[in-house]
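User: Just a sanity check before I run the rest of the batch. Below are the structure tokens for the first item. I only need the designed sequence back.
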């Protein structure tokens, strides 16, 4: 992937799809284009519909409840989200369903309508990325398009995946690289964003998560062996989990756990039949989703620094 600063021929390249939906930029509370005041609000940049709810849904709901404008920029349409976990099958899926699910999730979280870049979903590692997918797009092109959204919305804070993309999905790693590059370009400009966070999972959480998943599998009587994709993903979660001491930001989202669970329930096509009204499953969800964890990339933390909320945003009670 080439540097966004070293692409003199980029104007001659085929461009990616247009930004498919800028509706979220026009929600009440969005910054006016060309405004001269300080940046404000939170922009969450993720790869697929549902990534935002899993990784940062609680933080987004808390930020919105405190009066901050909050937006979701989704890089792909999630059109390879059919039959998750299976190998050697057609994974194509109606992207309009994924778009509607993300709109539902944003409403549940109390944030603006989603914005889509419109790239195709690359699918899991080993599936073979289709033409027009995010992982095949020139990095400088994606950076430029994300930067245009940042310029329009003028958020104070950006959150995206950490470099490993939590479990190494090709679109997750591409999203992290391009969103981070776009942030750095924007932050160097007057009135640019002031903080960048990477969503990351600590090793202790991954260990507990996998134990909980195995307990749930036994409880439900699911005796199907894990698929090749399942095993690869489980290994990647462990390999790419961050040492606990690298986590700088642990946010208590219990006050908005209901919103996060409601947002996850919106992504019904990806939930493998999970019953959100099952009291036992609900209790497990509340235990798993009581906190969200991040690494503050910029401004760099001093050694040992920890925090319980994002810097750069307005918080109720402060």
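Assistant: Here's the designed sequence for the first item:
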């Amino acid at each position: 992937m080439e540097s966004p600063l070293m692409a003199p021929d980029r104007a001659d390249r085929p461009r990616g799809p247009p930004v498919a939906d800028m509706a979220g930029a026009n929600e009440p509370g969005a910054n006016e284009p060309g405004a001269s005041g300080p940046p404000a609000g939170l922009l969450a940049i993720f790869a697929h519909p549902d990534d935002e709810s899993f990784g940062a849904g609680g933080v987004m709901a808390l930020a919105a409840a405190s009066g901050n404008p909050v937006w979701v920029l989704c890089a792909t349409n999630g059109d390879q989200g059919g039959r998750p976990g299976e190998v050697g099958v057609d994974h194509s899926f109606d992207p309009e369903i994924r778009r509607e699910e993300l709109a539902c999730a944003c409403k549940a979280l109390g944030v603006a309508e989603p914005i889509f870049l419109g790239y195709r979903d690359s699918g899991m590692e080993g599936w073979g990325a289709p033409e027009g997918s995010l992982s095949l797009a020139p990095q400088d092109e994606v950076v430029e398009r994300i930067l245009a959204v940042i310029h329009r919305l003028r958020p104070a804070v950006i959150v995206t995946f950490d470099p490993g993309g939590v479990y190494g999905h090709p679109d997750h790693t591409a999203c992290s690289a391009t969103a981070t590059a776009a942030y750095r370009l924007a932050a160097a400009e007057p009135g640019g964003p002031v903080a960048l966070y990477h969503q990351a999972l600590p090793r202790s959480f991954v260990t507990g998560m996998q134990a909980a998943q195995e307990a749930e599998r036994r409880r439900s009587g699911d005796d199907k062996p894990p698929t090749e994709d399942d095993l690869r993903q489980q290994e990647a979660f462990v390999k790419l989990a961050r040492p606990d001491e690298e986590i700088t930001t642990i946010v208590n989202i219990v006050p908005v756990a209901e919103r996060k669970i409601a947002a996850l329930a919106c992504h019904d096509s990806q939930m493998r039949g999970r019953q959100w009204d099952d009291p036992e499953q609900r209790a497990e969800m509340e235990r798993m989703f009581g906190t969200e964890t991040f690494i503050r990339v910029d401004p760099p933390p001093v050694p040992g620094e920890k925090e319980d909320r994002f810097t750069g945003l307005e918080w109720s009670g402060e």
